[in-house]
Design brief:
The chain has 111 residues and is an alpha+beta fold. It folds into 2 domains: 45 residues, no CATH class; 42 residues. It is built from 2 helices and 5 strands; from the N terminus they run H-E-E-E-E-E-H. The strands form 2 sheets. The chain has a 3-stranded antiparallel β-sheet, with no helix packed on it. The protein starts with 5 loop residues before the first helix and ends with a helix. Keywords: Plasmid. This is DUF8106 domain-containing protein. InterPro entries: DUF8106. It comes from Natronorubrum aibiense.
Length: 111
């Protein structure tokens, strides 16, 4: 088996961390000429040409946000909601199958 070097596969010369502005087609590496604006616990990457916000990323020193553990009543509510959705879908499929079977029998009986 032949293995290619990473430079052989990536002939465009672009780095994986290249950002692209959809407003003016400006492109540059993540650590390039983008304007960095810290807001709360995030930093926004803004295009230096057209002022379009390209990305919003957490600051490196900010703690990761933790998801709150749902309470038992919320978990039961989600379970009940999902169960009712599945039940409704199975009833709809059953009724559709019954309608098709009835239509097939009615059309075959008229011949």
């Amino acid at each position: 088996m032949t293995h290619f070097a990473a430079t052989d596969r990536n002939t465009s010369g672009r780095r994986k961390s290249t950002l692209f502005c959809w407003g003016c087609d400006h492109e540059n590496p993540l650590d390039g000429d983008w304007d960095r604006r810290p807001i709360d616990r995030h930093v926004e990457y803004v295009c230096p040409v057209c002022e379009t916000t390209i990305a919003k990323r957490p600051l490196p020193n900010s703690p990761p946000t933790e998801r709150a553990t749902p309470t038992p009543s919320v978990m039961w509510q989600r379970t009940l909601h999902t169960t009712m959705g599945v039940w409704r879908a199975s009833i709809d499929v059953g009724l559709s199958t019954l309608a098709v079977a009835t239509a097939v029998q009615a059309s075959s009986g008229h011949r």
